[in-house]
Amino acid sequence: MSISKPFDVGNVTFHVQMPKFKTDAPTPVDLRTFAMVPVWAIVGPNLGHAAFRVLAAMCLFANKRTRITFVGQERLARELSITQPSISLQIKKLREAGYIVVPLPHTIKPM
Questions:
Q1: What are 50-102's pLDDT values in tens digits?
Q2: Is residue 6 assigned to a domain?
Q3: Among 101, 46, 47, 104, which Cα is nearest to 56's?
Q4: CA-CA distances (angstroms) from residue 56 to 9, 11, 52, 68, 94?
Q5: What is the total count of domains within the chain?
Q6: What local confidence, expressed as pLDDT, does residue 50 receive?
Q7: Where do runs of H (alpha helix) occur along the chain?
Q8: Which of 81, 62, 85 minimizes the C-alpha distance to 73?
Q9: Are the C-beta atoms of 20 and 2 separated by less than 8 Å?
Q10: Considering only CA atoms, which of 72, 14, 61, 16 is closest in space to residue 35?
């Protein structure tokens, strides 16, 4: 089942078939308005566009006080509309360039 949704472009009206989903769960509201991205990541010459997007997406989920994030690669992939292997590759590049540090599991202290 789908519904038709019209929209105008100039003098032409298009009708787009939109899928109709039945769900009882309300759509979550995204309350994020900005991300704190380090200045050195913006001005640094060694960071490519894809790696910067992944770093910025990680900053969306970082704790504002500690700057630590526990966001998963699948979530980052959904946020950026790319694949998880692409996220993994960019995280590897970020680690090798020293932009992020991934601690070993035994070194993480509980808060």
A1: 999 999 999 999 988 888 888 999 999 999 999 999 999 999 999 998 889 88
A2: no
A3: 47
A4: 33, 39, 6, 13, 11
A5: 1
A6: 95
A7: 39-43, 49-60, 73-80, 84-96
A8: 85
A9: yes
A10: 61
Average of per-residue pLDDT across 31-56:
87
How many Cβ atoms from other residues are within 10 Å of residue 104's Cβ? 6
82 with 91: CB under 8 angstroms?
no
Residues of the domain holding 80:
39-100
Whether residue 18 is predicted with pLDDT greater than 60 in this model: the reply is: no
Beta bridge partners of 6: 15
pLDDT for 38 equals 87
Element (H, E) at 48: none
**Residue 76: per-residue pLDDT:** 94
Residue 94 lies in a domain: yes
Distance CA 68, CA 13 (A): 48
